[in-house]
């Protein structure tokens, strides 16, 4: 005696993968689908731009990167700036990020007591007076 034959299952087709999103919510103005990400894989740079508030961000990418990776880099950078601003005792989070990337804190104007870097005229004048005294 043999077993009963089971009904053959019909093959299911391949599942189509949905593409990853390229538009996201802006962290600054909270508009849905206002942030677009464009990727230049040949140059290795991902560009992020908000249509509403004008925020922009660039990030390095590789051949495996997707638009979500550039967005997550932006979120991480914003969180890092917020943590630094909180540790420094406040400040402007967006302006502070640009300042730190360009090489440090802004310069404060020199007071009259300290003397400006270009004010060496007093020293040179005193030196000339000594030289004239030696010749006479």
UniProtKB/TrEMBL annotation:
One of its GO terms (biological process) is transcription elongation by RNA polymerase II. Residues 111-136 have a biased composition (Acidic residues). Keywords: Metal-binding, Nucleus, Transcription, Transcription regulation, Zinc, Zinc-finger. Pfam families: Zn_ribbon_Elf1. Residues 85-136 are annotated as: Disordered. It is found in: Nucleus. InterPro entries: Elf1, T_Elf1_sf. The keyword Zinc-finger applies. Gene3D superfamilies: 2.20.25.190. Its main location: nucleus. Coiled coil: none annotated. One of its GO terms (cellular component) is transcription elongation factor complex. GO terms for molecular function: RNA polymerase II complex binding; zinc ion binding. Belongs to the ELOF1 family. Transcription elongation factor implicated in the maintenance of proper chromatin structure in actively transcribed regions. PANTHER family: TRANSCRIPTION ELONGATION FACTOR 1 HOMOLOG (PTHR20934:SF0). This is Transcription elongation factor 1 homolog. It comes from Tothia fuscella. The lineage of its organism: Eukaryota, Fungi, Dikarya, Ascomycota, Pezizomycotina.
């Amino acid at each position: 005696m043999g077993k009963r034959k089971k009904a053959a299952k019909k093959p299911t087709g391949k599942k189509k993968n949905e593409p990853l999103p390229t538009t996201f919510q802006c962290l600054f103005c909270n508009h849905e689908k206002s942030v677009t990400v464009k990727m230049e894989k040949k140059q290795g740079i991902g560009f992020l731009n908000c249509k509403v508030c004008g925020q922009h961000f660039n990030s390095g990418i590789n051949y495996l990167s997707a638009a979500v990776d550039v967005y997550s880099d932006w979120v991480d950078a914003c969180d890092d700036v917020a943590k630094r601003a909180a540790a420094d005792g406040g400040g402007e989070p967006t302006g502070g990020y640009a300042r730190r990337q360009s090489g440090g804190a802004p310069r404060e104007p020199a007071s009259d007591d300290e003397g400006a870097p270009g004010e060496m005229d007093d020293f040179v004048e005193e030196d000339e007076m000594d030289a004239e005294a030696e010749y006479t």
